[in-house]
Structure formats: C-alpha cells, structure tokens
Amino acid sequence: AILQFPNFRHLLVIDDDEIADPQWLERMCRAAETLSADIVGGPQVPVFADPAHARWAEHPVFAPPYRATGRVPALYSSGNLLVGRNVLIAMGPPFLDLRFNFMGGGDSDFLSRSAQKGFVLGWCAEAKVHETVPARRIEADWIRARSLRNGVISTLVEKKKRAGTPLAGAKVLLKSLALLAASPLRGLIRLARTGSPDIAIYPVHVALGRVLAEFGYANEQYRQPEKN
What we know:
single chain, alpha/beta, Spore Coat Polysaccharide Biosynthesis Protein SpsA, Chain A, 3-stranded mixed beta sheet
C-alpha cells in the first residue's frame, strides 16, 4: 500500500469486534496533527453483553490506560490505533513478531520498538471505539488468565527492549521481583480507592505473570478461540 498509494499518510486499525464512533477517523487524524504524534491510540469502550456487568468497565483489563488527550510514554494495543506512514517505512516488514501470535502482545511489542526508535506516541480520548464483551470474559478464570498474560507480555516486551544491554536479563528479573513484592501494597491502595477486590488483585496477577514468564510460562489464550 505504501508503494502503490504515494499519498497514503496514516494506517488506522480497529478490531473486528468493535464499532467506531462516527467522528472516529477525523478525530484520530486531527490528534496526530495537533499532537505532532507518529502513532495515536484511543479508548476501547467495553459494551457488555449483560448490562449488569457494566461495573467491570473500570477493571484494568477493560479500562483505557489514559483519560486525557495528549502525548503519552507508551501504548499497548492495536484495538484503536493510528500509525503514520513514516513509522511503517522505518520499522519495515515484518511488523509483528510471530512469537506473540497465540498469546497476543505483538502489537505491544511493535509499539514498544517504535517508541524506542524515537517515534512520538499520542492518545485521543475523544476517538472512541466500542468493543463487544461476551459474558465469558467476565468470568473469574478469564480475567485472571488475561491479567497473568499481561504480565507475561510485559516481561517479554521488556526483554526485547533491553536486549544487548549489560545485565539485561538480570535487570528484568529484578524489576519483576520488585513489582511482585510491591503488588500486595499496590492492591491494598486500589482496594481503598475503588472498593473492588477484583481491581485490587490485578497488580498481583500482573506481577506474578511477569515472574512466571522467566520460567517459560506462556498463556496462549488464542489457541482456544472459543474460550477467548
């Protein structure tokens, strides 16, 4: 597409279970211009199959990482994303690491590598897409598995980021252990703030996933799409 369409400027991506707001495209492109950002992310608003599950919208598995429009240090998902032509040319194919295929996280890895190359990341809070959330994704085992998986991906992405630097593996492991040690306190702070045990346990699961990744644990949820 880059070669065939010389006026092509931005690639915009949403998931196949999402519906974009009518002004989504315009808002994403405008944010890229006003923020002078090479990559822009936006919120994926959960639409629960059962309205009674709406309280889960604030759980970190479903909630957006940022609330306000502006430049940001990191992005994690391609579920609502604008990528500039310049990024695609510089990063070159293959854009995604196939090792993440059945786990997910190839988008996080790509975004991390792009930021490491110096590309500017932005967030447009007004450019929303609405994601269908089936009832099975509210079950405790799915939430736990997704939280652990987020921790695993965090470790794998950070290892790639630090590759070739002195004591890279040791630094990642020490960070994971420190996060695990701090996770109960972080959980208690979340519990006091939200009153939700489910939200409070999230940093514990993520930190545990980071450590488990050191021992080869990989939660490949996409190998069983019927359970995802």
